[in-house]
Design a protein that fits this description.
By secondary structure, the chain is mostly helical. The protein has a domain at 14-124: 50s Ribosomal Protein L17, Chain: A (Alpha-Beta Complex). 57% of the residues lie in helices and 12% in strands. The protein is built from 6 helices and 3 strands, in the order αβαααββαα. It has helices spanning 14-31, 38-55, 60-70, 73-86, 124-132, 142-167; strands spanning 33-37, 95-102, 109-115. It has a 3-stranded antiparallel sheet. Strand 2 (95-102) and strand 3 form a beta hairpin. Helix 1 (14-31) crosses helix 4 and helix 3 crosses helix 4 (73-86). The protein is globular and about 65 Å long.
């Protein structure tokens, strides 16, 4: 029976599941983005986000706790270094899962899991450049009215500039 089992066991025993999460966590920390199945990505998010929260406090105890989960010195250094510096002010939600389609061989749903602050496409940093140039909506009826309005303002500006030149 399935009573009281609230997390996805991924059809693995406990040791195999822990090894899977350690390896996937280290790969995600090193590469900032990995592609895996949707079920594994969701399980990895619940495994890794508490560790990222612990990495905000750079103490010996928190480093040892995180190392006991990851067992990879370079991943711990990366997590407490640039990753902790970027996510220091974020209150949670450090990882993003994007569904990318289905695997051809067995039809499993594939997803990409990545750090939120390390992707400039989805973050607001690159969108500010796009929104800075002023996006306009195109409507059928607004085209001629907008053209006449700009022509009227251009004519008004032209008359004020010629009027000021005549006064001199």
């Amino acid at each position: 029976m399935r009573h009281g089992k609230k997390f996805n066991h991924l059809k693995r025993k406990k040791g195999h599941r822990n090894a899977l999460f350690k390896n996937m966590s280290s790969a995600l920390i090193q590469h900032k983005r990995i592609t895996t199945t949707l079920a594994k990505a969701k399980a990895l998010r619940s495994y890794l986000e508490p560790l990222i929260t612990k990495a905000k406090v750079n103490s010996t105890h928190s480093r040892r706790v995180v190392f006991s989960y990851l067992s990879d010195k370079s991943a711990v250094e990366e997590l407490f270094g640039p990753i902790a510096a970027k996510i220091g002010t974020r209150p949670g939600g450090y990882l993003r899962i994007i569904k990318t389609g289905f695997r051809k061989s067995d039809g499993a749903e594939i997803a990409m899991i990545e750090f939120v602050d390390f992707n400039e496409i989805y973050s607001g940093k690159s969108e500010s450049k796009v929104s800075g140039r002023g996006r306009r909506r195109r409507t059928r009826r607004g085209g001629s009215a907008a053209a006449t309005a700009t022509a009227a303002t251009a004519a008004a500006v032209a008359t004020t500039t010629t009027g000021s030149e005549e006064e001199e």
